[in-house]
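Entry details:
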Amino acid sequence: ISDYTKAIEINPGYAAAYNNRGLVYWDKGQYDQAISDFTKAIEINPGDAAAYNNRGGTYGERGQYDQAISDFTKAIEINPGDAEAYYNRGITFGERGQNDQAISDYTKAIEINPGDAKAYYNRGITFGERGQNDQAISDYTKAIEINPGYAAAYNNRGLVYWDKGQYDQAISDFTKAIEINPGDAAAYNNRGGTYGERGQYDQAISDFTKATEINPRDAKAYYNRGITFRERGQNDQAISDYTKAIEINPGYAEAYYNRGNTFGERGQNDQAISDYTKAIEINPGDAAAYNNRGLVYGMKGQHDQAISDFTKATEINPRDAKAYYNRGKTYGERGQYDQAISDYTKAIEINPRYAGAYNLRGFIYYFKGEYEKSLKDVKKAQSLGCQISPRLLEALRKALGGKK
């Protein structure tokens, strides 16, 4: 900075010195000074595409996306062969969620410079965000062909393979990312998640542990290891890991939710309710947390609170058959049979193969003396694999005069 400043003092019209000093300010995170220098370079030389590109990048760092896109566009007008300006504008469009424009710009950057691995990589990310997994894999593969040491491309391609259920390929890619960069906590985390999906819990825990060793502030790795411990029935360890994840990230709604599930499995109902409540505070649209908190309230005999939570779950997700089922069960326990039947019926409308809903609706019809309807429901439940109470079947047989 000192030398560029001296050069500018000697020659106040030295556009390149302003541009380069701006780059140093950018590298130091001093964005106001950087923008000031790039602007001065542009004033001196309005045809300086690089200065527009650099100022656009600085605006992008500050989240000023409109100004960034304007500068990248100007750079392209000055130099239509500026692959970097297309690439940078694509990045900015991606930040704004304008994926079509982002893909168009990455494609143009690739046409100008077919060896631009990062353009393939970022186009792959954008395809992945749109659910175009095959195109994403193709772009990550091309990035790897250009740069065989591109660990991030292996990692991201592994994530797409994981999303497609191709776990062998996913593990292979995460492993390659780790070989290239042994300090890549994300790759260990992702490989651990894939091992978990395959039920290989020892390998999963080993990888999550490695991720936490590399980055002791990796809340996701603690969370994922907690999930795996719970799968193995090691609830103490699971709770410990969820707690650590929450300490690192107090806004981690999923960690509160899953710790609540684990407390619930251990019969620690008050702690479970507390965690579900916290998850809901963080994410008021979490239907599952309302549903599960309702279940715990039900176990504590707090039926009003349970019904309120199940109702909220159905408001958030009107297609949540389980919430209707659980509310129906609570109404049934309170002797509110008509409401129970209504909820079981709704659960069946959403999921016509919901055996439990047929079974419990059959019970309610029996209690109401509607034996034909009861028999029809229990038979349907049986056909869907539900075990029916022999006492109910015998009671129905007697009530219907021996009819089976």
Remarks:
- The mean pLDDT is 97.
- The chain is about 80% helix and 0% strand.
- The CA atoms of residues 90 and 104 lie 8 Å apart.
